[in-house]
């Protein structure tokens, strides 16, 4: 006996719900496959996928999400999903910024492929969200995927939860995502068939994966602070020695834990007594500390070198920071105690038990990083040309501008760059002159390091990929086309 219409509707609703509720990267990919198979949807049909899914899944819960995504898709900049229909984009990395960029490119109607070298989202660390990012994510249906998203005054989320929800949204809007696929380098179009042959491709690992045959017009480097895309010079900002420690403790969600207040950034200058008391009582000397309650109890703090030496965390004092913080020179047990003691004092000894959460490597989740040198790319984009095939190459997220974690600017500035990149790709697809597009992108990029929650436009409802909706007093022509000639037609072997 065949299924009734009602049974089909309820089965589709359930399959969709399994996908929405999946709690890991692998689980999400699996649930998505099952959903597509059972509902006979073809995810490679990227132009129609969202609409087919929407027609197939009509449960009331899904409808709530569709209305949010429809609202977003109605931004005039996307031209009803036709702004970039002939553009093929490769995004390297499924961190928050790669996925956020991929979603925008899909709204523009482009064919978007994301490759990610890992198949797990395991970072417990927590990102601070600016009000506009909360508004942005709500508009994409964040709460449907993660019911606790920014409830009340919460303005943060763990990196893995954020990746998980963005992965789901990306899949829904027709982005093709491949995990366990690592980008190695760009491959130039072959010399012997200048016009009809394939264009730019990527060398990837594992070799022979179908994505090695994908040729694209745009590539976006979203692979984190150690970007693999060639041709971008990096600027270094050398500050005074800054050593940051992150620590995650198990959150058992008890009432006692719920009562403990978060610390949203106690800088030394604002609360000298706190830090002096901490030093006097424990010998721990910090410049700042942040505590967010999320899936874990997450702490990030900047510690002074001398106190790390005094407490035996760093064994020998070396001038070169790399050597100073190398694993051979760090006493892991002492580091665990140091971070735990600071967390205990910072929360006024109110957290009942500070047991370390376990990280991806099966170890207690504590880490120490050097922020003495921070990197930013000199340019946000460039164009390569080979045998008449032009390729637009862009950076977003940490690959573009490395954030200082205790200030938590990574995701907020990362999303701004994701929108700016989508805007550039739109111009590219519309056939604007490459030098003009690059000059505009550089003009906008100059604003990025200065952005704060206070100095960007306050009317979040008006935000689109058009930069003028987000940056007040934008001068999109401050860099002139002749000033960007060095990033146009960049020699492939740079
Ligand atoms: P990422 O989130 O770094 O994502 C890059 C992605 O690219 C990763 O999934 C990676 O696996 C993938 N990738 C890398 N190379 C390749 C390749 N060759 N091919 C395919 N895929 C590739 N910020 C804070 O504010 N507070 C914190 O406590 C904090 N902790 C962090 C801890 C770690 C270990 C890391 C790496 C970053 C941390 N950050 C933190 C930074 C924060 O995660 C980023 O600012 C934010 O996630 C946005 O970054 P992104 O999307 O640009 O890159």
Q: Could you tell me how far the N terminus lies from the C terminus, measured between alpha carbons in angstroms?
A: 65 Å
Shape: globular
Q: How many beta-strand segments?
A: 16
In the CATH hierarchy, what is the superfamily of the largest domain?
FAD/NAD(P)-binding domain
Which cofactor or ligand species appear? flavin-adenine dinucleotide
The biggest sheet, with number of strands, parallel, antiparallel or mixed sense and barrel status, is: 6 strands, mixed
Radius of gyration: 24 Å
Helix content: 25-40%
CATH topology of the largest domain, anyone? FAD/NAD(P)-binding domain
Low-confidence stretches: none
Describe the strand arrangement of the main beta sheet, using strand numbers. 5-2-1-8-16-15
Number of domains: 3
Return the CATH class of the largest domain: Alpha Beta
CATH architecture annotation name of the largest domain: 3-Layer(bba) Sandwich
Portion of residues in beta strands equals 15-25%
Protein structure class: alpha/beta
Total helical elements: 15
Report mean pLDDT, rounded to a whole number: 94
Task: Please provide a written account of the structure.
This protein has 494 residues and is α/β, with parallel strands linked by helices. 33% of the residues lie in helices and 18% in strands. The protein has helices spanning 5-21, 25-38, 49-56, 60-73, 96-107, 131-139, 142-145, 159-172, 255-259, 272-282, 305-310, 321-324, 332-346, 410-429, 434-445; strands at 88-92, 111-116, 126-128, 156-158, 176-179, 182-187, 201-205, 218-221, 234-238, 243-250, 286-293, 296-303, 366-370, 373-377, 381-386, 389-395. Strands 5-2-1-8-16-15 form a six-stranded mixed sheet, with helices on one face. A four-stranded antiparallel sheet has the order 11-12-10-13. Strands 3-4 form a two-stranded antiparallel sheet. Strand 1, helix 5 (96-107) and strand 2 form a beta-alpha-beta unit. Helix 1 (5-21) runs antiparallel to helix 2, helix 5 packs parallel to helix 8 and helix 14 (410-429) packs antiparallel against helix 15 (434-445). The longest helix has 20 residues, at 410-429. The structure holds flavin-adenine dinucleotide. Flavin-adenine dinucleotide binds next to helix 5, strand 2, strand 6 and helix 14. It catalyses: L-methionyl-[F-actin] + NADPH + O2 + H(+) = L-methionyl-(R)-S-oxide-[F-actin] + NADP(+) + H2O. GO terms for molecular function: actin binding; F-actin monooxygenase activity; FAD binding; metal ion binding.
